[in-house]
Amino acid sequence: MTLLGGWGFCVLIGLYFVVDVWGVWNGAPFYFVGMNSILVYTLHEILEGNVPFCGCNQVEAHGNYMTNNVGGVAIWICYMFYCYKNNFFVVL
């Protein structure tokens, strides 16, 4: 736990310098998802197993499972980018 916490802290320091101090990277695609994090969490829980892919329990090979999950994340990111471009934000 300490080792993983330490690595997470090192990654956070690295991203702080790359994004905030040096301005090399603007944080995309995490920026788009973070602007509507409540929406993506809620939709993921409501639509679990249905959108964007269903039948995850039937996948047996690791490559198929990985492709299925990466595709699902990519679709959520594209949807959050669409919401960002249309200025649709869910705020509490």
Beta fraction of the residues? Answer: under 5%
Spans of at least 5 consecutive residues with low confidence: none
- SS-based class: mainly alpha
Shape: globular
Q: Can you count the helices?
A: 4
- Report the C-alpha radius of gyration, rounded: 16 Å
Helix coverage percent of residues? 55-70%
Biggest sheet layout:
none
Order of H and E elements: HHHH
Rounded mean pLDDT is 87
Number of E-type strands: 0
N- to C-terminal separation? 33 Å
Structure commentary:
There is one protein chain. This protein has 92 residues and is mainly alpha-helical. Helices cover 65% and strands 0% of the residues. It has helices at residues 2-21, 30-35, 37-46, 62-85. The termini are far apart.
Which short descriptors sum up this protein?
92 residues; mainly alpha; 0% strand
List the helices and strands and how they pair.
Elements lengths: L1 H20 L8 H6 L1 H10 L15 H24 L7
